[in-house]
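Let us walk through a complete example step by step. Step one is to write down the protein sequence. Step two is to encode the small molecule, glutathione, as a SMILES string so that its atoms and bonds are unambiguous. Step three, shown after the inputs, is the structure prediction itself.
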Amino acid sequence: MTLTLYTFDWLPEFPRGFVRDLRVRWGLEEIGRSYQVATVPAHPKSAEHRKLQPFTQVPVIQDGEQKLFESGAILVYLCEGTPLLPDERKAEIWQWLFAALNTVELSVMHWVSMILAERVPEFFGPPPSADVRAHAKADMDTKLTALQQALGDKEWLAGDFSVADIAMVDVLRVVAAEEALDAHPHLAAYVERATSRPAFKRAMADHMLHWQAADAEQAKRSAG
Ligand SMILES: N[C@@H](CCC(=O)N[C@@H](CS)C(=O)NCC(=O)O)C(=O)O
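Step three: the predicted structure of the complex.
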């Protein structure tokens, strides 16, 4: 049965490459599972979307009878019983997956939303004061320093490449894109290592193709 991954029908340039359907696509590519993409309107949000996802966010998947939202839950569901979530390291991998989404991503998104408030105030504004932003950056850097220390010389967080690495690297990509990972060279190398994987490249290519098709569809609608 084909699994359906829901993402938005169209988004402006700035979040492309970072919308969280990417991490699900990456997981699907890693485990070799085919999928189709369906869309929900980004604006205005629909009642159908709220039935799928109570906060009207993406990603959501539908796999037979199983509907699931929250990217972490989706990744665990997909990777259970695969080499990305082997039974013997399950607890450790869950631990790092929660650390990615509940500790690191929290700090990263707090800081990134402040950067975006300056860049696209119509979505995220008003921009915070410089000292509020500096405080958020310091908090994020504390988390990144600790993460780098925990990673040490290891290639991946918990044994072989796992679902925790997908979550963590997808969170760190945002920091790397803002050139704020330079002070954490081991983490920068970790991101580079993970995003060199063919599965990531396929996922990213398909993610970007989706937005290109969305642009074409929008252009067609406004022309006709
Ligand atoms: N914790 C959720 C966060 C989902 C999330 O924030 N999705 C963004 C796209 S990356 C979204 O739908 N934003 C629109 C909104 O919040 O209204 C997850 O990991 O699935």
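Step four is interpretation. The mean pLDDT is 97.
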